[in-house]
Structure formats: C-alpha cells, structure tokens
Amino acid sequence: GAGVSQTPSNKVTEKGKYVELRCDPISGHTALYWYRQSLGQGPEFLIYFQGTGAADDSGLPNDRFFAVRPEGSVSTLKIQRTERGDSAVYLCASSQRTTGELFFGEGSRLTVL
Amino acid sequence: GENVEQHPSTLSVQEGDSAVIKCTYSDSASNYFPWYKQELGKRPQLIIDIRSNVGEKKDQRIAVTLNKTAKHFSLHITETQPEDSAVYFCAARESGGSNYKLTFGKGTLLTVNP
Fold this sequence. Notes:
The complex is a heterodimer.
Chain A lengths: L4 E3 L2 E4 L5 E6 L6 E7 L6 E7 L2 E4 L8 E4 L6 E5 L8 E8 L7 E2 L3 E5 L1
Chain B lengths: L3 E4 L2 E5 L4 E7 L6 E7 L6 E7 L4 E4 L2 E6 L4 E6 L8 E8 L8 E3 L3 E6 L1
Parallel strand pairs in B: 2-11
Antiparallel strand pairs in B: 1-3, 3-8, 4-5, 4-9, 6-7, 7-8, 9-10, 9-11
C-alpha cells in the first residue's frame, strides 16, 4: 500500500479484556516497529521486527504484551488482561533497512475503561 | 540505552520569527538524528535528519545542527508560518548490529501566532 495502515483506529475496551492491534507496513519494508504514545509524550519504543523475528523487544512493559509478524509483513500487537494504564495511542512504523527512516501509521487509539 | 532530552517543552513565536528546539543524547555511539513533526491527531512525519558525519544540514526554512562532542543537536525554523504549528520530536538512533531503534524526546509544542 501507499503508507502504513493500522486497524482499528479506535478501540474502547473494558479492564481485563484482550485486544489485538494490526499493522500493515509499506510494501517491501523489512523493518517494523511498535511504539506507544501517551498524551503529551514522545513515542515510546515497544518492539522491533526485522523480517519475521523480533530483533528487540526490550520496550514491552510486561508479559501481557506480545507481538507477532509471522510472514514478515503484517504485524499484530496483542495485549492481555488490559489495564487502564494501557490507554494510549499505539503507533506502528516501518522502514527499509538501508535508510532507517521510519514511516508511521496513523495509530490505534486504545481506551481501557 | 539511549536517553534523549528535549527543550523547551512549549515554544510560542510570532509569525516570521525564528524557532529553535534543542536536544541532547546520551549514547556517543548514536549516529542518526531525525526530527519529526506531528500535527494534532496525525502521524509523526519526518521533516529533516542528520547523520553523525555531517555538522549541519539545511532544507529551505529548516536546518539541523549537530555537535557530536557535546552530544547535542538542534532544529532551526526560520520565517515561521502558522502552518508550522505542531509538536516536534527529536530522536536518536543507537548504532551497533542491525538494530534501527529510534529513541524519541518528549516533544516541543510550537505555536506560531499570526
């Protein structure tokens, strides 16, 4: 596609529920990133994929967060037993390995009630 | 890991004035420093970047300077216009291996008053 696509754009859920956020990167981009952005803050790194494998998952806050990229393209961020503190905009970005410029999606706004 | 500090957190200027945003970073191995602009409710978009082998880079009204010794870099916007109003983020990339992770500053809300 022309840009990074993220779905859903908005997700409202109740505390304790499970959510999945999807990212479809720019075609041909091998690197994919998930960031989390809280109000008034900069994007906070969560996890980075190079191809199918998670090259760096040091930003995942705890074991309730998990992400996959099984075929090296689309990625899903999975959050179990959601908490109110998980409320944020989850940004996905992709890049060509050689240039390193990140192209961001519009984000998925998660609200946990 | 890398730590990026950004100042000021808010900046208000009159149209036509210049705006300067400053960032410092902690990891001397970082070698790529982009700046992103984020309008309200929109995605962050790259506006300019600089690599550690260059001291200054300019693109029309926007320029970035880098001081590797002091580990700081700055964004300069001249002849500001109301459409420059947005949140600006600096970032630094750790080098080493194949990790292209960017660490972002907390952002600067720039308001250009007509």
